[in-house]
Design goal:
Blueprint: H1 3-19, E1 49-51, E2 54-56, H2 62-73, H3 76-81, H4 84-94, H5 100-117, E3 122-139, E4 143-157, E5 160-176, E6 179-189, H6 204-210
Antiparallel strand pairs: 1-2, 3-4, 4-5, 5-6
Helix pairs in contact: 1-5, 4-5
Length: 228
């Protein structure tokens, strides 16, 4: 999640605070289980592991470029959980050398902005992300452009009820240091579906309680070294 994605998240955070943590009580009934996404990236595409806490080890293939873009999109929670020094190291690990300094400066500044907006809340900032679809705009052995349709759900107890931000992230990736790195990311609002009328919006506390113990189905995003 580069500066463009975090800047988009700042807007979600401001909206979340404006709306407030006042969603109606959610129903205890759970809807039907979602089906696995069609065309999901296979494990051979990567990531093979982590370096500096960031996903790494992607195949030098079209599917590897898609896997890299999808992994980089879903690094938001990991960045929130890191201190600034660790976050800088992770950002540099994902970034191309030509834009690394700019990505570090902008992303860290925007992360501070989100934390400032949500400062009056209690407990951790929760930012759950998922990638729904990808489109390869172009691919060559040394560079690729991949678009990812994704959603992030931001919440914090006492200040922001769960807010879903839908976006399309367009990554320009380059093959550097034996892996796909982010040269640029352009984020625009994506098509956003209306909430199902059978589902009552949850509060931050209800979201945390009902999803306690849940982990991402796809192993992407930032992880602490050694975490399984």
């Amino acid at each position: 999640m580069t500066a463009a994605a975090v800047a988009f998240l700042v807007g979600i955070a401001f909206h979340a605070v404006a709306v407030g943590d006042r969603s109606p009580t959610a129903s205890s009934e759970v809807g039907p289980e979602a089906s696995p996404p069609v065309g999901a990236v296979t494990p051979v595409a990567g990531p093979a592991g982590t370096v500096e806490g960031a996903p790494s080890g992607f195949g030098r293939t079209e599917s590897g470029a898609v896997a890299a873009a999808a992994s980089y999109v879903t690094t938001g929670q990991g960045l929130f959980d890191m201190d600034p020094l660790a976050a800088e190291q992770a950002i540099r690990q994902m970034a191309a050398e030509s834009t690394a300094d700019q990505q570090v400066s902008s992303t860290l500044a925007d992360l501070r902005s989100v934390r400032d907006v949500l400062r009056s809340g209690t407990g951790p900032i929760s930012y759950r992300q998922a990638c729904l679809a990808a489109r390869v705009e172009r691919f060559a052995i040394d560079e690729a452009r991949v678009s990812i349709w994704n959603v992030g759900v931001l919440s914090r107890e006492g200040v922001a009820s769960p807010q879903a931000g839908w976006q399309i992230s367009v990554f320009d990736l380059v093959w550097e240091r034996d892996d796909w790195r982010i040269r640029t990311e352009i984020v625009t609002p994506g098509p956003a579906p209306a909430i199902d009328a059978s589902t009552v919006p949850a509060t931050a506390a209800q979201l945390a309680a009902q999803l306690d113990g849940f982990v991402p189905l796809v192993s992407t995003g930032l992880r602490e070294e050694g975490e399984r």
